[in-house]
């Protein structure tokens, strides 16, 4: 079972170009091991495993994967929940725990706080003891963000988020901004940071940010990064630690996945159409 949103509407529309055609999309899945390679140890037929990232191809009934790319799924976690949270959860883990290490007393800004990754960032950062500020577009999403541990919710369509962050922090700014929006928020995000703050740009739902000169970072000695989960899980140990921490937080109740939609794999086109038309919310899971 693979989560449809891991490829998303842009992939479905052809914005991301595959190396060759035909190809099978999908970048995360949970499933049962049905065969193992010769000489392989540590994996057995019947094991429940998960993966997120490359190789692409999760939209399939069966998939051949390198053994070092999969991780065991604890028996305490529903496979559908694991499929819905694998990529988003591992993204939240490396952003909060390694890209910038959020600690008690920090103040953070999360754009798209009710989105897939944003929701988990708010839940996890709140559990770590940070003060969480989030931007959302609707009252419904504001209510969800508050439920997820967001202490201050900014309705960015009605309010200037830079001014609101300035008010909330008494002019001090935030330690880190997690920005998956890109073009529309990038410069404002930089303005929200305190001295030596971290700008973490990990997505571009509104388009690629406009280029900025390095000198724009100098007045507050800011850090700027455009990280990828793949580089943060290059080794087997990193992958196991990352996934293990996600699963542990799911088991303990710190992280809650919203599995609101399930489609049979045969209806993947309908799933993508609903995603693109904003009919869905939370996670979308394909069931083979």
TrEMBL record:
Superkingdom of source: Eukaryota
Protein name: Probable quinone oxidoreductase
Species of the source: Arabidopsis arenosa
GO molecular function: mRNA 3'-UTR AU-rich region binding; NADPH binding; quinone reductase (NADPH) activity
GO cellular-component term (any): cytosol
Annotated PANTHER family: QUINONE OXIDOREDUCTASE PIG3-RELATED (PTHR48106), QUINONE OXIDOREDUCTASE-RELATED (PTHR48106:SF13)
InterPro entries: ADH-like_C, ADH-like_N, ER, GroES-like_sf, NAD(P)-bd_dom_sf, QOR-like
Cited Gene3D superfamilies: Medium-chain alcohol dehydrogenases, catalytic domain (3.90.180.10), NAD(P)-binding Rossmann-like Domain (3.40.50.720)
SMART domains (alphabetical): PKS_ER (SM00829)
SUPFAM superfamilies in UniProt: GroES-like, NAD(P)-binding Rossmann-fold domains
Domain Enoyl reductase (ER) residue range list: 2-286
